[in-house]
Amino acid sequence: MKEIILIKNGELALKGLNRSNFEDALVKNMKRRLNSLGSVSIRKAQSTIYVEPQSDDFDFDEALERVSCIFGIAAFSRACVCEKTVEDILTKSVEYLKPSLENIKTFKVEAKRADKNFPLTSPEISRELGATLLKAFPHLRVDVHNPERTVFVEIRDYAAYVRAEQLQGAGGLPVGTAGTASILISGGIDSPVAAWTMAKRGLRLNAIHFASPPYTSKRAELKVRTLLSKVARYSGSINLAIVPFTEIQDMIAENCPEEYFTLIMRRMMMRIAERLAEKSGSLALITGESLGQVASQTLPALVTTDAVTNIPVLRPLIGMDKEEIIRISRKIDAFETSILPYEDCCTVFTPKHPKTRPTLSACEEAESSLNIDELIEKAINDTEYSFID
Ligand code: ATP
Ligand code: MG
């Protein structure tokens, strides 16, 4: 039996005149994500997107899995393709709907006849199919007001489609429709969640990671790549810049007061990230900071890190508790990777008594013996680029 995936859009429906742009972006993203699974046609018609396998070896289950991660899809369903005859619709429905109807008691049928040449009207189709299903599954009752399951039949241009339950999509907006931003990604729990949260609102992602070999190992870098590939299942491919940070950390450790280490480090990261963002076409930075979570994330501390950048810094987790963040981390299958115990460049140099109420001028004073411009230039020159899919 031939199956397809049908996508109906939720929030996209609100976008008025932009609607068509958003839908085109979604179709393009879907093609990118599904084309490698085999021959498939993805097209939109009358506010529905049709994913139709064109060969038997198309990996349908993996396609469903991937569709469930594509932003801009509120709900989707798998459907059985029938010839546009009453007979074919009735026969195929019984077989196709068996698993969905076996374990429930009440149902109803909703029919929609887009092709007015079809011999039965919508209410007639509903009645016919309802009667056939009752006969095939005698344990069922029809309940038009509060059914446990609704069976949908649609008579369209080229075929009729029968489907049962809808599956929940990833929601959000198609990636790319909101522009591009750069996520500062560490190996921790928070930054992958921040990346996912902003991709959900339609941002395409670039990523920046600061590595400090030999204080941080190759495995720590691999962990970051793994985390990004988890995010990329939702966001699509991500360009990654790995910035060598060892020299900067050494210079800070040698020349600055210990209680300012983390803050100065964060200010250096933001300065470099801003430059890399400009180079890669990102309009904003994204971090995984959450208010008050650690000393460098108090409001006075955030003021000192914000002061060194001129582009917006998006902090989607700012008002979230750790539990809420972990819930998302688990949902996107990042958590188990995030808690692997590889060292991060920030943990290597954590001061014993970090400043929690720093002032901007004290920070500037604390870093005044560094040759900031030169350090930044060197780090940017030695940055390595790769691609996460
Ligand atoms: P995370 O769980 O994301 O590591 P965290 O709670 O450990 O966050 P910090 O270590 O203070 O907090 O880092 C705050 C934010 O700074 C991170 O969410 C991330 O966006 C960025 N960041 C920290 N370390 C790095 C790094 N090595 N490379 C790139 N960005 C980093
Ligand atoms: Mg961290």
General description of the model:
With 389 residues, this protein is α/β, with parallel strands linked by helices. It has two domains: 3-170, VC0802-like (2-Layer Sandwich); 180-388, 3-Layer(aba) Sandwich (Rossmann fold), CATH 3.40.50. The protein has 14 helices and 15 strands. Strands 1, 2, 3, 4, 5, 6, 7, 8 and 9 form a nine-stranded mixed beta sheet that branches. A six-stranded mixed beta sheet has the order 14-13-10-11-12-15. Strand 13, helix 9 (299-306) and strand 14 form a beta-alpha-beta unit. The model has no long low-confidence stretch (mean pLDDT 93). Residues 186, 188, 344, 346 line the site of magnesium ion. Adenosine-5'-triphosphate binds at residues 184-186, 188-191, 208-210, 269, 287-289, 293-294, 296, 344-346.
Could you write a compact summary of the structure shown?
The protein has 389 residues and is α/β, with parallel strands linked by helices.
The count of domains is: 2
Euclidean distance between termini CA atoms: 32 Å
Helix content: 40-55%
What small molecules accompany the polymer chains?
Answer: adenosine-5'-triphosphate, magnesium ion
Major sheet characteristics:
9 strands, mixed
Per CATH, the superfamily of the largest domain is HUPs
Highest CATH level, the class of the largest domain: Alpha Beta
Q: Specify Rg, calculated over alpha carbons.
A: 27 Å
The shape, in one word, is elongated
H-E string: EHEEHEHEHEEEEEHEHEHHEHEHHHHHE
What is the number of E strands? 15
Low-confidence segments, ≥5 residues, pLDDT <50? none
